[in-house]
Amino acid sequence: MKIISVLAGFVLMIAFCVISTSEIAQAEEVLGTGTDSLLGGDLTDPEDDGEPEADEGYNATFTSNEEPGFAGGEFSFNVFDNRLGPSNDKWCCGKGGGIPEEGLWVMAEFDEPYALTHFTVSSANDVPGRDPTVWEVQGSNDGEEFDTIFAHDGDSFWDQRLQVVLFEAGEDYDKQKIGYQFFRHVTFDTATNPAGAYFQIGEIEFFGDDSYPVEPKSKLATTWGRIKNAR
Does residue 8 sit within a domain? Predict the structure, then answer.
């Protein structure tokens, strides 16, 4: 009888762990598909009045280690253009030969540090095999040394094209107690890497608070953009 009880307890413990792990893995929230599903009002463009073709009206300076710029040939800064779609509304697709060891990254630099409260990352319009499968969101205060805020290593988060997925501090990654002046998204692998056109992202939105530690949601109404309308 004792053996049966011990085995039953062990099975329950495993079941609890599996359920808990599944809940954690699914904590991120799908907001929908298309431009209208973006939260808007993020740190890079709080007024949503940026002009990507002119690289004007943004509250951040952008840099990248591949294809820096807006529009052009599906360049990297298109992830901050507040639009989801084909062609120059996305960043695609790499130079070929595989993703470099340091990853493919795009970065936003701000005038002051923010604690990252939440962010969205959106899939592009085609070829699911190009979705990032190993990627990180990182923070820095000098643009050289980076801390990992969020990391994913596994299947793609997206099951539709132009899909917007929300990640929140305290649920999907640790609530931030310090602020960063630089945020960057780094892709280390995709399902189609290293063959051909192996990489793409539709859009990235960063949201933050300039007080530490991060306050409850009720005190973040202004910096949370339109998230309150997405609930």
Answer: no
